[in-house]
Amino acid sequence: MTRFILRRLFTALITLIISSFLVCMLIHLIPGDPVAMMMAQNSSPTPEQLAAMRHMLGLDLPLWQQYFHYVGRLLTGDMGRSIFGSEPVGKLLLERLPNTFALAFAGLAIAIGFGMPLGFFAAYKKGSWADSALMAFAVAGVSVPNFWLGLMLVLLFSMTLGWLPVAGEDWRSMILPAVTLGVTYMAIIARMTRSAMIEVFSEDFIRTARAKGLPESIVMFRHALRPAMISVVTIIGVVFGYLMGGAVVVENVFSWNGLGRLAIQAINYRDYPLIQGFILLFATIIVVMSVLLDIAYAWLDPRISVQ
Amino acid sequence: MSVVVPAAQSLPAPLTRMASPRRLLLRRMLRSRSFLIGGGIVVFVALVAIFAPGLAPFDPDRIGAGKRLAAPGAKFLLGTDEFGRDILSRVIFGARYTLYIGLVAVGIGLLCGVVIGATAAYAGGWFGGLLMRTIDLLYTFPDVLIALGLVAFLGPNLTNAMIAVGISAIPYYARVTYGVVLSERQKPYVDAAQVVGAGHLRVVVRHLMPNVLPPMIVVASLGFSAAVLSAAALSFLGLGAQPPTPEWGLMLSTGRNYITRDPWLVIGPGVAIFITVMAFNLFGDGVRDLLDPRQRQRTQ
């Protein structure tokens, strides 16, 4: 197990190195001179100002040295300064991170909390009208654009019924964004759980358990649930990453003060250091989450760490 | 190859009375609800896009076709927007943008993904391994995030949004292609082709690709719906189509400013995206069921 964890940490490190390299190189996608684009907010930057900015970002170095310059700064905790407002990028991002985490975890809780039981139920009632209805709902759930669903929920629950606030910072104002974010992944998890359960139900050990006269509830919850859980846990890692991505969009529907809103503002102001920091932070979070989930997965299914 | 023919001729007599595979497939198609409903709507949306100029009651960009923010009625079935443009006409023309965006994005993603995935699977070894490791790495990042990052640096407009959405989906197509090619590669017909002296390129293009193609139809259809969603999200965030383009995501973005007074501004375009995306998802699911009955048996 220790060896498995060490190896997993090593690949995570490689992943982070590659991601930081890609993020560093993104600046060269900017059409024209990146420094001139960044300073466009400043009415007419002098050549000295441009050169100073170029030097600060390390863009005056040869291409292969730029990455080392970038990582060198990252390792001292310096993610650069926001061009607009000149605050440290790290500080700006960390201020918003808790809000995005709160939203993403609330969305995840809704997705798992409703998706797994629904999928389990659909598999148990396979072929019934309830199963068909749930699967139709699942197709709708993966197809609905979350930004539109958000607007529709606001229209119904905030404006027509007046039950929930449109925006704010307390838990009540988090309900609509979390539901909006969670619905798609609830549908995905329900579908996954359903097919995993159906597969498990046809296994020999389930037939054996039933044949020896165990009560149905024990067969379901003790024998069938755990192996099915494993295949669902594996996708939760991917789901979490996509949930964080979805949060970027949903935050902008509900004016939720998280990273996603900051990112869109940064893009509108061409605040490139802030955008780079945002992408790198997201990449790091996703890598860390996937390591944690892999370890959880290996713990659930000991065969994994041996491979 | 003539290897299959003698085997088919020596089939036992009763089996020859079975329906031909084509008839069987047709029968299954007609029985598959997902395939019929999804495919039907896809065809409908395509027809709307093609005949948009004839179908739309007004020019979608005509400012002041009616009163500003008029409620749905006999003349303007879906109402008018903040410039007095007919929303129905804009939704109809929006179908063109949506299908165009989807085709370009899927085209970019599929082309690059298939080349990368097939190369990695066919080459194997450390090269294939390294290629797929990189793809796996990119796959863990949400596609919206990759697209967002690319658009942020390329500059926000519709062309860049399509490119970004296409690139963001490459890992998905590459992974599926890799899996399919890897399993096909181990089949005897590949060895047979190589034994007869076919070169690598010939084996891949003439022998592997025809067998890899059917599963890719499923993947492309599901990928199409994802591409439409991502591109609409980018436009909604102001990073894709720019005004006055009648693009559905952009229409939602401008319409939300009037949501309190005039909710119909966000209903029409939203329903259009929802239905189109669902149609491609159903169609993809339906084709998968048709191609792989075993999978269907397992999951139904």
Question: What do these coordinates show?
Answer:
The complex is a heterodimer of chains A (307) and B (300). With 307 residues, chain A is mostly helical. Chain A folds into 2 domains: 2-81, no CATH class; 97-257, MetI-like fold, CATH 1.10.3720. Chain A has 13 helices and no strands. Chain A has helices at 2-25, 34-38, 47-56, 63-75, 89-124, 129-143, 146-160, 172-201, 204-211, 216-254, 259-268, 272-300, 303-306. The longest helix of chain A is centred in the last third of the chain and has 39 residues, at 216-254. Chain A is flat. The model of chain A has no long low-confidence stretch (mean pLDDT 85). Chain B has 300 residues and is mainly alpha-helical. Chain B has one domain (29-59, 76-299): MetI-like (MetI-like fold, Orthogonal Bundle), CATH 1.10.3720. In chain B, 73% of the residues lie in helices and 0% in strands. Chain B contains 14 helices and no strands. Chain B has helices spanning 4-9, 21-31, 33-50, 52-55, 87-123, 125-139, 143-154, 158-168, 170-185, 188-195, 200-236, 248-255, 264-291, 293-299. In chain B, helix 10 (188-195) packs across helix 11 (200-236). Chain B is elongated. In chain B, 46% of the residues are buried. Residues 1-16 and 296-300 of chain B have low confidence and may be disordered. At the A-B interface, helix 1, helix 6, helix 7, helix 8 and helix 10 of A face helix 6, helix 7, helix 11 and helix 13 of B.
In brief:
Chain A has 307 residues and is mostly helical. In chain A, 78% of the residues lie in helices and 0% in strands. Chain B has helices at 4-9, 21-31, 33-50, 52-55, 87-123, 125-139, 143-154, 158-168, 170-185, 188-195, 200-236, 248-255, 264-291, 293-299.
